[in-house]
What does this fold into?
Amino acid sequence: MVSISLVTRQQQTILFIGGGAVAERRLRPFLDEPCQILVISPIVTNAIREWAEQGKLEWRDVAFTSEVGRDIINFHESCQLVFACTDSSEVNEEVAGWARKHHFLVNRSDRMDDCDFTVPSTLTIGDIHLAISANSVGPRINKLLRMDMTNRYSELQIALPSLKIMREDVKLLIPDIEERQMFWRTHLTEHTLAAILKGEWPMIEEKLHHAISGLRIKP
Ligand SMILES: C[C@@]1(CC(=O)O)c2cc3[nH]c(cc4nc(cc5[nH]c(cc(n2)[C@H]1CCC(=O)O)[C@@](C)(CC(=O)O)[C@@H]5CCC(=O)O)C(CC(=O)O)=C4CCC(=O)O)c(CCC(=O)O)c3CC(=O)O
Ligand SMILES: NC(=O)C1=CN([C@@H]2O[C@H](COP(=O)(O)OP(=O)(O)OC[C@H]3O[C@@H](n4cnc5c(N)ncnc54)[C@H](O)[C@@H]3O)[C@@H](O)[C@H]2O)C=CC1
It folds into this structure.
């Protein structure tokens, strides 16, 4: 299993066949991304219906058939990701076969062993995006880990914006990559992280500012 981060494009279509609870959960993270979302399903959840009404996605209230598949190919050329999340294994099987014929990657909600990609639990702390895959150990473990990490790393949120600015400052002040790496290895250590997580960011921030000021006055 390889974890990668997906960057979507405005003209890319993410396709959902089925519009139940699982589709809603998988679809939600795409709402804020630059992409088109197409849902093919006779029935959808209230949330999906509302998103369709608000123009956040396109919903076609039809069952998946090969004719619908042809239509999708004609109008959505750049649809590389397909979520087969109906409550029928036969339909999911048919969708997966159709999608692979067109070289699309498939996620099947009923069979992890027939997925080209799976969906991890995710949490976002400022610019940090953490993904948790448990290789089918069970969604309970994913959820517990996610909640634990959310609590554990919440203090980082305060530090990240300043750290980002400091990184740019240091880049300018130390043009050499190896020297720069040395600077960060010295000043941003495991102990520093532990201190930030304990709520000591103001003190760490001052120390880092001091170290960066030292670079400015170096001959
Ligand atoms: C393989 C995978 C699917 C894939 O990616 O293709 C998969 C498989 C299955 N999940 C099942 C059940 C539930 N899954 C959830 C929730 C989540 N499941 C998610 C991911 C994945 N689930 C992928 C593995 C990811 C990995 O570990 O790498 C999350 C992260 C993302 C998301 O789904 O959006 C999200 C956690 C969100 C969080 O962080 O809280 C809940 C709800 C809950 O727990 O609250 C329930 C129970 C209630 C319900 O029925 O809804 C069953 C049926 C099991 C059975 O029948 O017993 C299967 C099928 C099976 O195991 O075969
Ligand atoms: N991976 C996961 O996290 C989980 C996976 N599952 C699996 O996912 C399946 C779906 O779960 P839910 O969303 O809870 O079911 P659901 O019953 O809420 O939704 C099923 C959806 O499939 C649609 N559908 C049925 N036939 C269709 C067709 N021919 N074409 C297009 N759409 C069609 C229905 O209109 C409905 O919107 C379950 O049957 C189970 O196999 C279930 C729970 C969790």
